[in-house]
Amino acid sequence: MLKVYCDGGARGNPGPAAYGFVVKEEGATIKEGNGYIGVATNNVAEYTAIVEALKWLGPNKKGAQLHFFLDSQLAASQLNGIFKVKNAKIRELLVKIRELENEFGKIIYQHVPRDQNKEADKQVNIALDQRSI
Fold first, then answer.
1. 74-131 per-position pLDDT tens digit
2. 3-state helix, strand, coil in the chain (%, to 5)
């Protein structure tokens, strides 16, 4: 099972926003990704991280089982069907995630404390720092 760490952040909420993700296979990092997404909310950035990770994983690890680690309890709860999605932009991203999920086996979304998601957070800050130069 691949481990996928995702994070998103905005400096201000909304504000300049970015996503980051790290994919690990058997403990080794096989992919780090990040990107600036413009002015957005933290929640949009969190969901964008998942979309972008899935978009990379599709052609590279099709059929794999995935274990996502998210420091957004809201995103984890919504993806697991515990909380409803009321925001229209988040709903669009959720629909995209559900489409992309079809290329994989079992998928787990788990909330983790922020200190267990430092590598993905680092990717977010790399994208934000590069944008502000």
1. 999 999 999 999 999 999 999 999 999 999 999 999 999 999 999 999 999 999 999 8
2. 45, 30, 25
| Alpha-carbon distances of 61 from 51, 53, 97, 111, 123, rounded to whole Å | 15, 11, 16, 23, 21
- CA terminus-to-terminus distance, the chain: 38
CATH number, domain containing residue 25: 3.30.420.10
**Contacts of 48 by beta carbon, 8 Å cutoff, 6+ apart:** 8, 17, 19, 37, 40, 93
Which residue type sits at 18? A
pTM (2 d.p.): 0.97
Q: Into how many domains does the chain fold?
A: 1
E strands present in 1-133:
2-10, 15-25, 28-40, 66-70, 107-111
